[in-house]
Specification:
The protein contains 5 helices and 2 strands, in the order H-H-H-E-E-H-H. It has 199 residues and is mainly alpha-helical.
Length: 199
């Protein structure tokens, strides 16, 4: 075995400033031939799979009839725009009975819902004026509840726990269950920046 094994790197003369050895054409030819074979095999497989799927669909759909037959719509071309028809479509969608399909992704609907909830939570409003029932703001309700305390329910007799049972533990919720959506936070930030620019 010689001192210069094939695994050792060859000495490179960098004095000329360019690669002095030639490209091995055999590696390039092998790569092109392998790529061509792969492309041909893939095309044949795709064609065969398509034939199998089409044959199965034709078998399941049955023979063509006047109700089920392929139609070539390419000769029809694109339909010309008709402003009158577009106006009629817009009017029909406006007069369409509820419930209507949402025209956006629902962000504005959620924001409107939260605004209605805020009005109910933060203002006085009638529940039943004939009976004198009034809805009070939530802050005032919490003040009254803190001053008067919660009503105490009568103690209930509990049956003894059976073998293997444990007393249930109520976990404290991590949040109050309400959070503004990202859309509402963006709207509030835009309003706040508009106010800051006015001042």
């Amino acid at each position: 075995m010689s001192m210069h094994d094939s695994h050792e790197p060859e000495h490179i003369d960098a004095s000329k400033g360019y690669e002095v050895s030639d490209v091995r054409i055999s590696g390039v030819v092998v790569f092109i031939v392998a790529l061509s074979i792969f492309a041909v095999v893939t095309a044949v497989l795709s064609y065969g799979i398509g034939k199998v799927l089409n044959a199965r669909m034709s078998k399941e759909d049955g023979p063509p009839s006047r109700w089920a037959h392929p139609v070539d719509v390419r000769p029809l071309g694109n339909m010309a725009s008709n402003p009158e028809m577009q106006n009629q479509m817009a009017e029909s969608t406006q007069s369409f009975p509820a419930p209507r399909v949402q025209t956006d992704d629902g962000n504005q609907d959620v924001a409107d819902l939260h605004q209605r909830e805020d009005l109910l939570l933060n203002n006085y409003s009638w529940v039943d004026s004939s009976q004198g029932k009034v809805r009070i703001p939530i802050e005032r309700a919490m003040e009254l509840l803190a001053a008067r305390g919660l009503p105490v329910a009568p103690a209930m007799e509990q049956s003894p726990l059976m073998t293997g049972d444990k007393k249930p533990v109520v976990a404290v919720p991590l949040t109050n269950g309400f959070a503004r959506t990202g859309y509402e936070l963006d709207q509030a930030a835009a309003v706040a920046s508009g106010r800051a620019e006015q001042h």
